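TICKET: design request
STATUS: open
ATTACHED STRUCTURE:
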């Protein structure tokens, strides 16, 4: 039986709201893809990202146009050249992986001949807010080993002091979401180090990150918006100390694994690599 594909937009409420430097949201809007061969069902989903010009409607349109192609035999391998990296390809790529795993009766890690996944320490993200609200949020999550804190520029020192006061034992990484200038990095980095911050994610706009070349990065810097797929890695050399791999950027697990391998090879020389799904474990190269 040909593989049948359905595409469904879905929305899930967020407890309160979630804020980064670019805005706030009160719900998570996703697009779900389901594939069935009449016996097995594979499922994948994505979160369209406005930062890259994606909307739920545009992703649904792109994926819906592939329904007849999937029925005619489009597979995961063909998908890699059929769609560009992004949320739409991620949802379908992961649905293909899920269907393959269901058919084989094996988890995906065994299909890939990878080691069995083990527990990892992951981040719990604190939304951008006033120092008072962020301290209160940190106090509620103070038992967590690793907090990721969203920042936005002015007032960031006060925010981190408040988070540190609320969670004195947690390790902290910060995510500026392209909200800093070079002068802000130079001013904030030593202060953050004193407050126990381990790393900053994407401090500068992706189009302005040449400022990192030759910079004494006393506080390690991770690429997020500057880092998409394997092809994007070359432009990051000399700028970043780590990369954040997200399936909605790579266009799915297939490309993410290729990117991971390329980044690990680079890490053996100078970089670190991290996965984000969406949590962020920090790893130094061995």
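STATUS: resolved
RESOLUTION: sequence designed for all positions
ATTACHED SEQUENCE:
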């Amino acid at each position: 039986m040909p593989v049948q594909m359905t595409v469904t937009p879905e929305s899930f409420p967020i407890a309160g709201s979630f804020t980064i430097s670019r805005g706030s949201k009160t719900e998570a809007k996703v697009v779900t893809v389901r594939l069935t061969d009449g016996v097995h069902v594979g499922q994948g989903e994505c979160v369209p990202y406005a930062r890259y010009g994606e909307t739920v409607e545009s992703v649904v349109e792109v994926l819906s146009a592939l329904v007849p192609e999937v029925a005619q035999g489009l597979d995961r391998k063909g998908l890699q050249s059929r769609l560009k990296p992004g949320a739409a390809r991620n949802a379908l790529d992961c649905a293909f992986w899920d269907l393959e795993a269901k058919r084989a009766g094996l988890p995906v890690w065994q299909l890939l001949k990878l080691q069995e996944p083990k527990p990892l320490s992951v981040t719990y993200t604190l939304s951008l807010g006033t120092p008072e609200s962020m301290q209160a949020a940190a106090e509620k999550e103070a038992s967590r080993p690793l907090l990721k804190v969203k920042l936005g520029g002015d007032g960031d020192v006060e925010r981190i002091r408040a988070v540190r006061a609320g969670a004195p034992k947690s390790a902290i990484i910060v995510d500026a979401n392209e909200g800093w200038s070079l002068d802000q990095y130079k001013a904030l980095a030593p202060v953050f180090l004193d407050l126990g911050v381990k790393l900053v994610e994407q401090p500068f706009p992706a189009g302005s990150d040449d400022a990192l070349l030759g910079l004494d990065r006393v506080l390690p810097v991770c690429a997020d918006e500057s880092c998409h797929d394997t092809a994007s890695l070359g432009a990051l050399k000399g700028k970043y100390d780590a990369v954040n791999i997200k399936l909605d950027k790579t266009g799915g697990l297939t490309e993410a694994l290729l990117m991971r391998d390329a980044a690990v090879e680079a890490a053996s020389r100078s970089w670190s690599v991290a996965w984000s799904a969406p949590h962020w474990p920090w790893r130094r190269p061995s």
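CLOSING REMARK: Confidence is low (pLDDT under 50) at residues 275-286. Residues 87-104 form the longest helix (18 residues).
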